[in-house]
Structure formats: C-alpha cells, structure tokens
Amino acid sequence: MSAAEAVTDALRDLHGRFAGVREGRRADYIPELTRSDPDDFGLALVSMDGHSYSAGAADTPFSLQSVSKPFVYALALASLGLEEVSRWVGAEPSGEAFNAISLEAGTGRPANAMVNAGAIVTTALVPDSREAPAFHRILTCLSRFAGRKLDVDEDVYASESATGDRNRALAYLIRSARALPVDPVAAVDTYFRQCAVRATAVDLAVMAATLAHGGVNPVTGERVVPPEVAAQVLAVMATCGMYDASGDWLLRVGLPAKSGVSGGLIAAGPARFGLAAYSPLLDAAGTSVRGYAALGALSERLGLHLMKNPALPGSTVTLVTTADVLPSAPSGRRERALRGRVGVVAAQGALDFTAAERVLYALDESGPERAGSVVLDLREVTGADSVALELLHAGLSRLAREGRRAAVVDPGDRLGPPDLVRERTGQDLPRFGSREEAAEHCAQALAAPG
Ligand code: DON
C-alpha cells in the first residue's frame, strides 16, 4: 500500500459506481465490434509527471475508432500548419451525428476533423510518399502519443472495410466538390486502418495526457507535436469531439474529449491529467455510456471543469511592508526613518500573468510615498513564464520612470539574465543575495540621492 494508491482508490470507487450500468448497446455496423465483451469497463488517469493510475479492464486492447481522429488531426497540423489544414477542413461544431454529411454548402469542406467526413479529409492530408507512406506516419505518430508501438487489429479493419460504404460515399461526395486532395478509396482505406489501431485505456490516457501536456508525452518525455498544435487539437475536441453532444458535454463535464464507437473515450484536463475510459455499450451519440458517466463524475470529483476556476493560486505575494519593520532593521532614528521609505515585497511560486499582476500591484502598495525605493524579493519564486517576465520588466521600468528605485533579491535570476533586464527595464537593477543587503542599499541610496 502506498500513498498514491489513494488515486487508484478514487478510480476504483468510480469503477464500482458505474460497473452495474447496463444501458446502451455495442456498435454493430462494424460487425467485428460486436465481439467485444459488454461487461468490459476500464478507467485510466495519467498525470503530467507521467504517473499512471487505473481500475478495471484498463489493459484490454480495443480499436481506437474515432479516438484516433484528434491525433491524426495533430499530425496533419504539425505537418502542414493550421492555415493549410483549415483550407480543407473547418473547425465548427456540426451539431450532427458522426457519420452525417456535414459539408459546407458550396465548398464541400467538412465542418470539422472530428466527424467522419472531416476525419477522412484530415487523413488524406497526411503526407504520403514511397519512403514514408501516410499510414506508416499515422501509426508512428499514434505510437509516439501512446509511448509504445501500437498495431492494427486486422479483423476490425477487414470488418469495417467490408461494410464501410457510407464512409466511401462521403469521400466520393467530398471528392465531387473538389474538396478531397487524394483518391477517395485510398483515403478511406487509410482512415479505416487508422480506426483499427489497437490500444488500451491506459494507452489512451497517456495519449490524452500528451495533448494536455502541451504535446510532450509525460511518460517518455518525447515531444510528439508542437505546443500550439496540442492547443489547437484540444480546442477542436472541446467544441466538436462529442459530435451533437459536444455542447452538453462541455456544459456538464467541461473538458476537451473524444469518443469512439468501440467504447473508448478520452478527456484531457489541460496541464493536469489525461483521462480515458473503455466500455463498449454506447448511447445514441456513439459514446460509451459508462465512460461518459465515469469521466463526468471524475471531472466533478477532481474539479477539472475548465470553466470553473479552481486554479486560482493561493498566495503569490507573501509580504508587503516597509524595511523599518524587518527584524534586522537598525535601531537608530534616522536609519529607521530612511528604512521606512523603502518598501519590501516578497513573492513566491511560479509566476504567470495572474501572479505577475499581483506582484506589480503589491509594488505600488508597498510605497508609503512615491519617492521611496522598493526591494523585490524573488528568492521563493520558482519560475516565471515569458508573459510574467515581460510584465514585471515593464512594471519595473515604469517605477524607474516615476523616480522610484528598485533593488531585487534574485540569486536564481528569475527576472532573467542582467543584460535582458537592462534592455527591458532601461536600468541596471541592483541585485542582492539577501533582503537585508538590498534594504540597506536602498536606504543608503535614499540618504545620498543621485
Ligand atoms: O468511421 C466510422 O464509422 C468508424 N470507424 C469510427 C466512428 C466512430 O468511432 C464514431 N465515434 N463515436
């Protein structure tokens, strides 16, 4: 028994809660899918550190089906860029079933890459050459997302290939509008193979976690797609991933997600978790009934709904005061008076836009008078993103223009290298190893202006 088993317990709990649900039916338009066990039910969660937790049939392999779509969309985006891909496939929710003729009037462009029509076009966009055939690229990409070599369930592929006339019809229709860049039969064949790629719920959770982790697989550490591509894919999953149930899902569960007719379901909590469920019994929209219920409950339990704001960080600013009240302040009256004109602000944690705004506000609050100086203590800051840095540099530069000098306690160079700080703030910001040294420097500077 380990402490982290508590996470597994939470998954087991949900598994127990929904294992008894018997609603829904297996997809039978791909005959091979009716061979799956309707009782199978697996749940998996993978953290941004690559920690993996699961319950139930999380190691049972099944074909990805539509869960493959966001990852092939990622491959097309990484290969061609958003502008080129968007010429061929849109990013609007269709409000229709996954197999509907969701094509833009006039152009024949499919509504989005999550419905079959758009997924077939997306697959057709994957570069294809003798040395690197499109399907080889797709399988390699899906495998990198999963962090292990995946393979094709040949029986599922053969079964869909034998019965998939609706998808072929869709491809021909798109082709007739000159909106498909390759031969319809070839495009659909590659699409069927991609849908037949086999993975487990644990694999799916790693794949979802890779999107949530900005395109870097958190288990293998490999960068699979650029961060902007991961964000683009998550955005389309959020609005279109659950077809005509996408709005309801976003309302209730609040996460980018993708369902598949074999019973797989993924959801991604950006910068938090990858989640996956497997259970073959489907609702009318082609979504796993138990998967929907369990991931919905998990999102609720872990507070993952994107529109809630659980991430409001605790405190960024840990101290706003003046240097005369620091324990180390000298006792002489004149020194104390000088110290009273030196503000002190200390911050902690990782600084992003929200946190940087708090620091800047505290810098303003810290000064009993505008002519004073200020010590900004960043020793407990663990990092600052580029937006936070830009804002802090701009704020410090404004302070200087208003005649308020600053000194920083920044042994870890959290504000960036001195050259950059000089360039951005227009001054040589004095840096110190301790709050005391910085306060003393500021007090001396106030005593001998200029
Ligand atoms: O093209 C099809 O119909 C299947 N290969 C995939 C559809 C699918 O998974 C829809 N998702 N719920």
From TrEMBL:
Its EC number is 3.5.1.2. Residues 344-415 form the STAS domain. Substrate binds at residues 66, 116, 160, 167, 191, 243, 261. Residues 409-441 are annotated as: Disordered. The keyword tRNA-binding does not apply. It catalyses: L-glutamine + H2O = L-glutamate + NH4(+). GO terms for molecular function: glutaminase activity. It comes from the Bacteria. Pfam families: Glutaminase, STAS. It is an enzyme of class 3 (hydrolase). The keyword S-adenosyl-L-methionine does not apply. Keywords: Acetylation, Hydrolase. HAMAP family: Glutaminase (MF_00313). Homotetramer. Belongs to the glutaminase family. This is Glutaminase. It comes from Streptomyces atroolivaceus.
